[in-house]
Amino acid sequence: MSATSRYWHICRISLKSQRAGYEYSLVPIAEEFYQQNVPSSQTREMQVFLLSYFYSFNSAKAGFCLRCYVSEPILKACQKIDSLFSGDKSFTYKDLLPFVLNDDGRAPIILDSDRKTQLILDENGIAKTSTFKFFTVEVLRTYNADARSMSLDNWVYLQTKQNSEVKDFLSEFGFQNLSDWALMNRARPKQIERLSVRDRHLVEVFHSVYRRDRQNHRQAGAKRCPDPSTAQLQEMLKSLQQRGVIIKTPVELTKELKHVATQLRQYDIWSYREPLEIQDPDTGNYTTRVDLLNDSQDELDVEEREIIEFLHEELKLALVGAIEQQISDRLSELQKSRKYAPLANQFIPGLQLYYCQQMPLKDVGPKLGMSSWDQTRRILNPGELLSKVRTSTIQQVIEKILSEAHSKGLTEIPPKIEYLKTVVEQIEAFADAEIFQEAAEEIRGGKSRSLDSLYAQELRQNINNNKSA
Question: How far apart (Å, rounded) are the C-alpha atoms in residues 131 and 440?
């Protein structure tokens, strides 16, 4: 199938093709709309055009094109999930398709003005709330189509993996979606040794307090791995202080522990061929699942594992460097601008009000003597700053990965196109999932936003460093 024909062929469940479980079906209304309206052959431009029509003009026809397009990566995501769990697992990707490949490409669907609800058009073109939610439309509804977001294909993959029905289905076979505290509690030496020194201290102190109390929780009939209590967090803070790790409050400690849990969760994603564990309901202990191959870890090439080990560390280092560089570049750009030079010295204070005091842009301007909201946006432009930091961060990590791979003989310099494409897609998806998707959502959150992302934390740190310098 050609790249463009993906916009008018929908992948759907097939009862006829029992071996594959799916088929591609022509959607004439999508083909007609695409051929008559889409002006470009460039993937990004085509998608921007179609998404604009779907979101802004309530075009069900553009929606058909997009629903066709995302159906294929949904299928591939299911196949990928299948491949992640080798061995006699008693299910295949075909068992996952009914949860996410539930669109036959027939019903005309648009979104309401708030982009929260799927609406179905009747024969007279009147929109009514749809009683059935198409997963293809849900993926499109939640996608951030601006230039700062991850690619649509990567977004589809992540949303398919995170689909609640898929996760519930997998949990029946021992693939639990463990909470942050369960992940921290069961962290194994192989995982811990991959963390930074500071993060290893966090895990060790967490284990010394949380594991000690967990037996009592189970005996008292409490839920598995509850949130750490205030008393537990305070005890951890004291133990960390003795180790030279200074964290001021239980709230800050909770955030740092959750960040470590995210790294442990990514370990399971990247090291998917290592046996997973399940919890014995009687003892509460974790044991290796017998339906996965016990020697599968040996299949993972040592050099590849070593690259994965420092990925988290390199991502954070690159983020810190990118923030510092982009703030410096923006400040220099403002100072050289004839129009905005008089207000260049308000750039750092403006970021401080926005990210440290969580003040909306419309209130930042008057505080700093700016004439209008538009002028404030042009000077601070937190969205553009995020976009540039993302680009710089990903570029730095890709360069580190390629350099490491080359030093271990895994690739040549310059790398082959397919290898480079794979690396770029994986790093983009990883960086977006870890940092930039949450950071972008914060900016769009308006007054209710909570600036707790890793990006916001590191930006605040940079601002505070600038103030004290």
Answer: 30
| Nearest to 370, CA basis, from 358, 357, 381 | 381
Given pLDDT bands bounded at 50, 70 and 90, which one contains residue 102? Answer: very high
What are the backbone angles phi and psi of residue 40, rounded to the nearest 5°? -125, 160
Question: For the chain, how many residues are written?
Answer: 469
How far is it, in rounded angstroms, from Cα 50 to Cα 64?
A: 10
24, β-bridge pairs? 11
Under 8 Å between Cβ of 238 and 162: no
DSSP sequence for 103-170: --S-S-EEE-TTS-SEEEE-TTS-EEE-SS--HHHHHHHT---STTSPPHHHHHHHHHHT-HHHHHHH
pLDDT of residue 10: 96
Nearest alpha-carbon partner for 106 in 153, 142, 71: 71
Is the bond into 98 cis (omega within 30 degrees of 0)? no
More confident residue, 435 or 177: 435
> From CA 307, how far away is CA 421, in angstroms rounded?
17
**Per-residue pLDDT reduced to its tens digit, 327-355:** 999 999 999 988 888 888 889 999 988 88
CB 433 within 8 A of CB 270: no
Mean pLDDT computed over 163-192: 73
CB within 8 Å of 381: residues ≥ 6 apart: none
For residue 26, the tally of other CB atoms under 10 A from its CB is 12
Beta bridge partners of 286: 279
pLDDT in tens, 21-62: 899 999 999 999 999 998 766 777 888 899 999 998 889 999
The letter for the amino acid at 380 is L
pLDDT at residue 129 in the model: 93
Rounded to whole angstroms, how far apart are CA atoms 45 and 43? Answer: 6
pLDDT digits (tens, 9 = 90+) for 443-463: 776 656 677 788 888 898 888
CB contact at 8 A, 21 and 93:
yes
Report d(CA 191, CA 180) in Å as an integer: 14
Q: What is the pLDDT of residue 126?
A: 93
Burial class (CB in 10 A: 0-12, 13-18, 19+), 384: middle
Q: Put residue 146 in one of left, alpha, beta given phi > 0 → left and psi -120 to 50 → alpha.
A: beta
